[in-house]
Structures are given as C-alpha cells and as structure tokens.
Amino acid sequence: MRIDVLTLFPEAFENILDTSIVQRAQQKGLLRVVLSNIRDFSRGNYNSVDDKPYGGGPGMVMMCEPIFDCLEHVEAAEEVRGRRILLSPQGQPFSQDLAQELAGEERLILIAGRYEGFDERVRTGLKPMEISIGDYVLSGGEIPAMVVIDAVTRLLPGVLGHDDSVKQESFSQGLLEYPQYTRPEVFRDMRVPEILLSGHHANIESWRLEQARKRTAQRRPDLAGEATNSKQE
Ligand code: 9D3
C-alpha cells in the first residue's frame, strides 16, 4: 500500500512514523508513506495557504488552490489513483470496520487541514470521503491522519506476523479485553486469580470470556450484542 499525506506539518509525522509499527511495515516493503507539504504548492509572494472567509466570520480557511495542486502532483506520481480522504470533524466516524475497508485499498491519499476548515470547493471539486476520529475538537487533521495510518497499517497482511494477537482480536471482536496478569503471583496483597494458575485451559478460556462480557456490559453497553464469538456461538 502507498499512503500519501498532504499536510502543512510533515515534520509532525516523522517521529511517529519512524518509531511505530508503521516503520516496520515500511521496512518490510508492505507500505510506503509519502509526506507532501501543501505549502510547497502555494503561489504568490507570501506563500499563503489560508485566507479570510468570504462573508466574514472568525478564523481563516484553507485555500483550495494549493490543495488541488498538491493533490494533482501527488496523484500523477503513480498509475493508481487511490482513495481520497479528507480528515474533518464533519466526517464519517472512524471505526475498525472502516479501517478494514481501507486496508483493502492499494493507495490512500490523506488530506490533513489546519485553521477553521477547508474552502468548500475542496469537497465539491475533489469529492474525497471524509473521516472524523470522534466527537472532540482537535487543532488539526494531523493526529487523525496518524490514527488512520496506524489502524490501517496493523491490518495489512504480513505486518503483524501471523501470531495469536490477530486471532485473539477476531476471537473477541466487539468485546473489551479480559483482565490480564503477569508475575509476581502476589503484589502488595493483590493475588492473581487462582484459575489463571490452574493450567486448565478450557476453564481459563471460559473465565476470560465471562470477564470480557461482564466488562463490556458494564462499561460499554453500546457494544453489548455487537460481539461475534466464533468459538462460543
Ligand atoms: C472550534 C473550531 N470549530 C468551529 C466551528 C471547527 C473546527 C475546525 C477545525 C474544529 C476542529 C478543527 C480541526 N480538526 C480537524 O481537522 C479534525 C478532527 C477533529 O477535530 N476531531 C475529530 N476528528 C477530526 S478529523 C480532523
């Protein structure tokens, strides 16, 4: 997969991309992330990428021309056009299902904005899909873009290696995690549940499932009923 990111702050991505699973995916040749600075496509003497909103109002708006030019430049670098994605508070809520869908694409082009928002012609002219990562106010689309990159990268075949964590995830899909323990057996009078020391794998598995269900019902009633469990049902 190739992921392009159009941003005013390419530096903001570098540390994250170079220290995460994303780096491993890139080293394995499964992913290539290409950062482009929208400011490189600004015109005129002041290199501006934002301007005052027509009709008045607070704040500044991202201009369409540098974004169109940057996108067209980046798209020309590869045969496959890919999926255009605008990170925006007005977008479709990001979810594991959407991450799964995006992981099937050959190429993603993420557009991360700053300021009060985009000139509407970015939407009408480029017809990107819009993604929000949740109902809270951030200062820009960079962190949401990193969230999307991280969630999608983990789903690319070969990135995690075919260890249990992938299986575990699908096993307990839609449930919160069960309680986990590691050494020591007793820490400040708090004991590890006896069943986990019993070596009885079937009992351990049903204890974990029960714990996961209780926890889900208590903390995330909105998820209850969502769970798919291939072993049990
Ligand atoms: C307080 C500013 N708001 C005034 C009506 C609008 C606004 C514009 C730009 C709010 C946030 C932003 C910057 N956020 C994003 O670009 C963003 C975002 C987010 O803030 N929350 C969740 N997901 C996303 S995806 C992109």
Write a concise keyword list for the protein shown above.
233 residues, alpha/beta, two-stranded antiparallel sheet, 17% strand, 5-stranded parallel sheet, binds ligand 9D3
In words, what does this structure look like?
By secondary structure, the chain is an alpha/beta fold. The longest helix has 19 residues, at 201-219. It has helices spanning 11-19, 21-27, 64-75, 96-103, 121-126, 142-153, 164-171, 194-197, 201-219; strands at residues 2-7, 32-37, 50-51, 61-62, 83-93, 107-111, 129-132, 186-187, 190-191. It has nine helices and nine strands. The protein has a five-stranded parallel β-sheet. Strands 3-4 form a two-stranded antiparallel ribbon. The protein is 36% helix and 17% strand. Ligand 9D3 binds next to strand 5.
Mean pLDDT: 93
The molecules bound to the chains, other than polymers, are: ligand 9D3
Runs in which pLDDT lies below 50 for 5 or more consecutive residues are none
- Spell out the helices and strands N to C: EHHEEEHEHEHEHHEEHH
Output the strand order for the largest sheet. Answer: 2-1-6-5-7
Share of helical residues: 25-40%
The rounded distance between the terminal residues' Cα atoms is 35 Å
* Biggest pleated sheet: 5 strands, parallel
Q: Count of DSSP helices? A: 9
Shape: elongated
Number of strands: 9
Radius of gyration using CA atoms only: 22 Å
Strand content: 15-25%
Structural class: alpha/beta
